[in-house]
Amino acid sequence: MSTPIVEIRNLSKNFKGRQAVDDLSFSIHPGDVYGFLGQNGAGKSTTMRMLLGLIFPDAGQIFINGEEFGNNRRYLLKHIGAIIERPDMYGYLSGRDNLRIMAALTRERIPDSRIYDVLEQVGLRGREKDKVKTYSQGMKQRLGIAIALVHQPDLLILDEPTNGLDPQGIAEMRQLILSLSRDHGKTVLVSSHLLHEIEQVATRMLVLHKGKKIAEGPVTELINPDDMLVDVVTRASAEERVRSSVWGEILVASAGNTMTFKMNAARVPELNKWLVEQGVAVMEIRSKHSLEDYFIAITQ
Amino acid sequence: MRRLVSVFVILLLPFLAPAMEAEQLYYALRTKVLSVKDYTADVKVTLDVNYMKIPPLEGKLYYKVPDKIRMVRKDGISILPKKNMSLSLGNLIPAGKVSVLDAGTATLQGKTLRVLKVIPEDDKSGIILSKIWIDEANLLALHTETTTQNDGTINMDLTFGKYIKQSLPDKVTITMDIKEYKLPKGITMDYSEVPTTAGPKKPQGDSKGNIIINYSNYVVNKGVDDKVFEEK
Amino acid sequence: MMKLLQIELYKIFRRPRTYISFGVVTAIAFIFQLAMKAGGREFFEFGMQDVTDTFNVQGSIINGYLVGYLILQSLLVQIPLLVALVAGDTLAGEANLGTLRLLLTRPISRPQLVLIKFLASSVYTILLILWLAVVALFLSLLLFGTGDMINLKSETFVLLLKDDVMWRYGCAFLFAVVAMTAIAALSLFLSAFADNSIGPIIATMAIVVVLTILSNLELPLFNAIRPYLFTSHMIGWKGFFDDPIPYAAIGKSAMVLVLYILGLVGGTIFYFNKKDISS
To answer: Are A80 and A53 in contact, with CB atoms under 8 Å apart?
Structure first.
């Protein structure tokens, strides 16, 4: 296996008595799209900020390309591009000027042609001379990506890149991340509090809860199709009938007229058919993917 | 005719001395002083006043009888003692009817001088008593001591040289009472050497000040336009 | 370093807010000049009463040099605010905008960033003082002409000959740059602790106002601390209009101010270098 592009060993950070990150270790290898999953306050941003030298860890070590980060921060940051939380820029400057400033701060000679290439890549050509305060949230987010990309880093750190975007923006961002990984060979660390977002872009993922690592591994292994939580809402309670059947084995919860099954999504039509045959009036079936439910699932 | 008489008196004076009566001497001096109707001169004014920090001021002084006086400095500021107090000898020698008392002689600048006490009979001039030290031989006042109603005692020393023929001094030193000067620190926001308490305190309150005027390049009795004296 | 400074200055001078200061200075100077034109002589003669009781003061009293001095004196309180407006914003403003974390994920060191911010604030300060020279002095000279300059101190009446004034202004403005750079350093220091720029700007002003009052209070209690307050030294520029010029005191004041600058910038670097950026 290749040298990890990021290696975190026993990282901890405490904010005034609150353990934000607790003995966290993981590695990201070149070519990975590494998903960071966790609720707000789980420690995703804190970890990412520590990776960028914005926050200093209380304990633990960070290695980038095998080199200890603390001693080589300036050198190693040349290999990293990042968006942390909101894409905040100088609103009174144009998109192009923001990009030029951030490009100049990489201390490398970045030609204007590269500036325009990146603007093209994120779809901001034509609007580059407009002041950033006139940009939509999505445009700002794309400008943020342009800033992260302009110096052609190997590693991209994207903290909640879809925050505040409309559904189309979210889809575009997803495509962009996939293309950066697939077509440009970037290694990406992306965080989200939404499981399906991680699921759709990441190759590996890490689940953080209260600063602790709960699970880590390839997405395909962690998000087991058999672990889907399916809520079935019926007109009247059908719990007894279900309990007495084979379906009772996968019933994990029941409250009022709503039953929750842990099952493979492919079997949902079969369950529906059986219920109808039993004369149960099915009002609604929804499969849940939210992180909260995922936590319920993996902690049960 | 009057002028002729005065010139005559002046010419005769050395021969009459020292037998001249006090009153006679006084009027002779006054006539002589007032014979200068106007003059202009280049002056250098040095203000030796405890609260003032002013370099010597050079300018042109205009004078016209009886009491018009003005110093002009191009684009500059001139500072002179107030008119009603002094400055010109003409002002310090009471005009009008006076009583003159002989106060004997005194030695000053190495010369024996007649001392006169002059008391004006009206008080328009604001002068209560004027003591004048006179070089009788040259009919020049070398020192005056004038007690005024409002402005204390003003002393004047006159030094004659180049312009002795016109009875005009080269240098006049006026010694007078100076009122206290003070502005609140909150307004002036002084920068003071820190800490402010260091060093001896400057003398406060009223004090004496010297104003020294050096004259040169007199132009006498050639007429001075009144406009010169108008305050701009 | 030059490139980074250029960028910083570009950011400062592309912001409309930056020009507020220049506008404020212009407006205050202009209002003052109007007022002096209208009733300056009466106003000033009021202050000179003790002198005019005894002396006849004639000539161009209200001239450009005097008006310039009076404007500088009255701007004593405003200029620090205007300096704080930009210097207090340098770090805190970026934190507030959210751009600070963007900057710090670029390969520049934090001490470097602080130094750049300080240098940029200093350049702004210098330009502001230069502008002040233009509107407070040169515009006044244009409107009121030259002349001997009267400087009314609390216990002294100073008169400077007109050919002896300009160089003093030069020195005074140089000193003012040092003094205002100390304010910039103070604002920068406070800025490092805050995540919005209002805090450091107000804190700078509060410190300047309180210490100025302490510097001027004639109480024995404060005499001991007065030499250590930078506000006592900030008005050292006035020393150049005294006669004789208290060079030793001015030199000492400049030294104190430079020490403040070094201390505050050093303190900013020390603190900022360890600060967690969570904005």
So the answer is: no
